[in-house]
Amino acid sequence: MAKENKTQYAILGILGFGPMSGYDIKKFVDMSIGFFWNENFGHIYPILNRLEKEGLVEKREVTPRRGPRRNVYSLTAAGKDALIAWLKSTESERAVRNELLLRIFFGNHLSTGELRETLLHERKQQEARLEAFAEVRDNIENKYPGSDEEKRNWLITLEYGIMKSKMTIRWVDQSLKKLE
Amino acid sequence: MAKENKTQYAILGILGFGPMSGYDIKKFVDMSIGFFWNENFGHIYPILNRLEKEGLVEKREVTPRRGPRRNVYSLTAAGKDALIAWLKSTESERAVRNELLLRIFFGNHLSTGELRETLLHERKQQEARLEAFAEVRDNIENKYPGSDEEKRNWLITLEYGIMKSKMTIRWVDQSLKKLE
DNA sequence: GCCAACATGTAATGAGTTACATGATTAG
DNA sequence: CTAATCATGTAACTCATTACATGTTGGC
To answer: Closest Cα of chain B to A66: distance in Å?
Structure first.
């Protein structure tokens, strides 16, 4: 089990909510944690295969009378152990890279107007995110059938997103003042 | 010029402050923008070579009477153009991945105590960052010989770091309350 | 009939990290 | 003398993205 591969932990964690196909996993990511996590098929399918070989997930082929065949995966006991081990570990993220800050840092090559545009573009994006968060909250509170604990944890991650967007907007506004 | 490669833009931007060796570039990153950007030699040297072939930077070999030989690179006109084109562009970052939030989202596999530990560990890290920022500010205000404009932009990026750490600490505290 | 959504997979490529290899100089 | 810092580079590897290939089903 390659330690640095984060996709595998995301997959194990998502299978912790119940058996799913690779296709389902991608949908799950996009619809619930898409605002702070991304995955793609070209990575999900090979890793599901590897996890199966390692005995961390179990494959069951489902061939319905109608519709294409699906591979439904579920967590094994070993898979749950691996998931929990990672959850308890406190390795920090290795790559710290903020492209926006890099652009600002090199901003002396731009005019003040162009720098303002860069900041305002970011502001717009954060405002759009804030609007999207309303929909996520609606999903959690009304459409999601999980336990209170699961909802609480989801809301905590959502709150992080909201606070970060609001903070970024505040930062843009005070930075624009500094450019005057 | 491969579009997705961010290291190349970081290198061009840093050479915008003056001619430097690959070694200098790494030091520069670590000492100034290390809190939001990272680079390593295994990537810097090959990319400097490629940028030279593409005519975006110019190499000058310096062999001092004492000390090892150095390759000092400087921005060409084409290099500056490429830098400015990237600065003006507004492609957003592709990979959005927050490992801490992923752990929280899967937190139903941990006890409340273990979840609290995860949050408190993050809180400690952010407090350490806040202390480190004091040193960065000192660097900017007292040791850095650049223009006022350069200092202002640097301080703006620093302020982002400070606000984000403070926000994260607030988020941890209110999340801990939700776990009670 | 056609497009969107369902469903799985591979191949090519690129980005970035880590380990390794080499050698000079300086400070303690 | 030895450790740290200066200085450059390559090789092996992993992670992730994108494009491609293939086929089904349901709705308009």
So the answer is: 34
